[in-house]
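Regression test attached.
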Amino acid sequence: MIISVIGDGSCNNDIYMIAEEAGKLIAEKGGILITGGLGGVMEAASKGAKEAGGTTVGILPGFSREDANRYVDIPVTTGLSHARNIIIARSADALIAISGGYGTLSEIAIAMKLGKPVIGIKTWGNIEGIINVNSPDEAIKKVLELLMSS
Amino acid sequence: MIISVIGDGSCNNDIYMIAEEAGKLIAEKGGILITGGLGGVMEAASKGAKEAGGTTVGILPGFSREDANRYVDIPVTTGLSHARNIIIARSADALIAISGGYGTLSEIAIAMKLGKPVIGIKTWGNIEGIINVNSPDEAIKKVLELLMSS
Amino acid sequence: MIISVIGDGSCNNDIYMIAEEAGKLIAEKGGILITGGLGGVMEAASKGAKEAGGTTVGILPGFSREDANRYVDIPVTTGLSHARNIIIARSADALIAISGGYGTLSEIAIAMKLGKPVIGIKTWGNIEGIINVNSPDEAIKKVLELLMSS
Amino acid sequence: MIISVIGDGSCNNDIYMIAEEAGKLIAEKGGILITGGLGGVMEAASKGAKEAGGTTVGILPGFSREDANRYVDIPVTTGLSHARNIIIARSADALIAISGGYGTLSEIAIAMKLGKPVIGIKTWGNIEGIINVNSPDEAIKKVLELLMSS
């Protein structure tokens, strides 16, 4: 099971804690975490997963491994800039979007196009098809429920 | 000036006529039209531009030039699947989104991320930053106005 | 017919004149020229094609149209860095490699992998499958002969 | 340290054993192995690394994780077809090319372009810049020597 957590490269403390908890729960359920590998939501989720003993993959936009946050085990330097968002959406079984701007929206849209579940927490609430929940715990439950039934 | 018209690969007659008119107006203003090169909105816009003497570029998802609609002058076969959407957003000065689903939404989001104007006609109305208008004529006026002032 | 001329972004005068002649001949035969859009061999071929009344496409590595040489009609800003080489190989019916380093070699290899004809002038001579010729004139004759028979 | 082993998707037994040994040695030196994730040389290297307790990443050309050989821990489904070769070259500190055809050659060329060490075993021997060796053992020694000094 590969789960992606997507969101902004910088975020406030509340969002950081939500993303960290999401990463932790993904690792506890035995999932591999895949993110864009940078700061903010991506770092928080990676931190949570890593500290819970999970494996974290960072699909980076640039050419340098130094861009990755320190919790990324497997840095993949794509050099494709934002086009790397598509690889994240393609590689995950399900995506959890936490907050986020237009970059996150592009990943949500690609995931939807591919028919993958997208669970949202405080994110683009008005996009048809996103399953909005209020906590990381609910998000993981929803992910597991959807992946089991598919 | 390179303008993109984005939207679904199949569409109803109303949408087709709107996209065809948009393509025609882009060509009349001297713009190069760039689309995803397939059917529906992409075909309609290409038809309009081509019949008005314009140049049409099709950034195709697959490997075969045969996938292009017949109004594409310059078929670029990327073989990148939906990742080609990003090239369209990156190459255009402005985008006109006409109707459209999740694929179109991903292009809108990438364009927004890059700070490019996105004019919408009967498209994702609830995305902050899209400039919604009611006709191709208004759309082109808006595009010209924005590109002049930038 | 879409023909690519590939080679280094900077080159000496001899190579420039060869590439310019190749571009001219492609345009005279009614072909669309596709290059990487930058300087050197890419510029020379674009100049030749443009001055002979042809259409020139530049598949650029970066995000800015300003990177294109002045003879490019259709600049496509991919933002994919060297990965744009693959789009050139995929979009052309045949490739003419003139001189060139490792970037050119990667395009040659991808074109070979796709089963496309690669004609070489003073390029990587020791790669099995490249058809080596001595002049742009021979190169175009070879391209036409191969495309007619396929 | 991330090391890539590149080569054909199908291979004879001799090449398979060489690639397996290379994978094993990479894992024993604490390296992460990155490959294209498919059969042949990619599978052999992944098997060697996995059985030696290493971590294996597969950068797949398609959309389905089922395409990965069974020794891939981290499957990344890029959906970019051969363009995924570029991600492999960009993500590795050094590449070991074992046998291989035009696809392998494209990876070698991109790696050279990026200034990364490429060690070859029974591969494209006539490309300037490849460091040709005769065994996996020599290859790893060369990789370590080059990465230490850089």
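Expected vs. actual: identical. Chain C touches chain B at residues 2, 32, 34, 55, 57, 59, 63, 65, 73-80, 86-87, 90-91, 114 (CB under 8 Å).
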